[in-house]
Write a structure and sequence with these properties.
The complex is a heterodimer.
Chain A lengths: L8 H9 L5 H19 L2 E4 L1 H16 L10 E5 L26 H8 L3 E6 L27 H8 L5 E6 L5 H7 L2 E4 L19 E6 L2 H11 L15 E4 H5 L3 H16 L4 E4 L5 H26 L6 H10 L4 H22 L4 E5 L15 H8 L4 E8 L5 E7 L5 H14 L11
Parallel strand pairs in A: 2-3, 2-4, 7-8, 7-9
Antiparallel strand pairs in A: 1-3, 4-6, 5-6, 5-10, 9-11, 10-11
Helix pairs in contact in A: 2-3, 5-6, 7-14, 10-11, 10-12, 10-13
Chain B lengths: L1 H9 L2 H13 L1 H6 L1 H16 L21
Helix pairs in contact in B: 2-4
Chain lengths: ~425, ~70
Amino acid sequence: MSDQPAFSICGLVSQIKERRLRASDIVAACLERIERLEPKLQAWAFLDPEGSRREAERLDRLAGSGTLLPLHGVPVGVKDIIDVAGMPTAAGFEPYRGRVARVDAPIVARLRALGAVVLGKTHTTQFAFADPAPTVNPWHPERTPGGSSSGSGAAVAARMVPFAIGSQTAGSVLRPAAYCGTIGFKPSYGWLTTSGVVPLAWSLDHLGLIACTVQDTALAYVALLEQRVDFSFQPQPPRLLLLTDFLDRSEPVVRANLLEVAQSFRAAGAPVEERRLPVDLDLLLAVHHVLMTAETAAVHRENLSRYREHYGPRLRAAVETGLLVPAALELHARRLRARLARVIDELLGQADAALLPTVPAPAPGRETTGDRSFQAVWTLCRTPSISLPSGLSPDGLPLAIQLVARQGHDRSLLQVAAWCERALPRLPEPPVVA
Amino acid sequence: MRDEMQRAEQRPWGQMLETFAAALYGPERARELETEIARMAEALERLSEEGLDLWDAAPDLRGVPGEESA
């Protein structure tokens, strides 16, 4: 099995349909790759090779009898806060190591019904917060893969699986995607149900996808939505708003990359207009911070008193400070969110998508999971957002752009992203794979 | 008591949070939490600066059948 371009959801599905590949071939190739790279990357919290092989053989028999499913035989990694029946949901938390899920979360049940093969659980930061996971960035062993969907980002970047499921409460799908050089897509709030997922802050928790291409992301997403949607890719040049507030806060290498990308979009026919946010970016971040901290405290208050010594320092501090948030200000933040989301919606309604960097700098060291501020705004406003690789920094780390659309405009955002992807450079494979 | 509350209201959020943290977790842990508390204080400061004119108009329910009209 060749890696690229065949190593994509679309490539694998078409080879299965043409009977040039079997599900068991694909699973065997992914498991072999994982075995080879996992000691360096630490992307997986739990692997189920036997179960994966059995499922692949079942799918091969199904294909032999003439039944082909939309994601037939495509391997997937699932972030370790999401229940997969028969596998532990440890959430990066030692006391939960032996907690085996009895029922699939709805998203996992849907993946299985679509023919995807769950290879195992990918590493998360503890409870999807900010204490780093053991995972290493495939582009540089001393850099963070980002968090909290650290294993999902690294596993897709290293081509261990063609796609993985992550979650985002601040920036945990798009940031690992940006640091690892993959696509990261966070749908509108609630479009992928978080039932069967360990919560962090329920009004901000989203599920998302990490994949190799926009088309793969769209194929998996539309299939997951249980809708029959015509997703033919013939996108027109989109109208884009370049949000300069974020450029002001970016490192020069990121700023230069985004301006260069905007220029290449213009050259390809897309109008790109520079705009400032109609509200204070720091206020948006403050509202997000207050809500996330208060909700995280509510979720973890009892567990922290029971397992204090097992909590990471960042999560513990967030819970303890969250307990100090005055109720009146938490309610104030909640009301502000509704008001701010309306203002942002009006802005986004003036174009097909907003354009900004996904992160203000390339991946930092492994003592952190990186800066969430550029992604958290859109999580707060519950809009769909997507990160696309846009080049490499002089020291060989991935750079990324982010596209954002109005809440509920997920499919048109994917269309915009598909157009933009064509105008962006394709990254080489990360050094750990080569 | 009232004077104390008035004084507390006049103190910046950061100081109030530190006081609460010290009361809840002890001064040593409160010092450890300093960074997180500073971030939270900054966030709360922004929210309190924003004013409270956020209330949407109450829905007009005149004429809607309810207990009184039943």
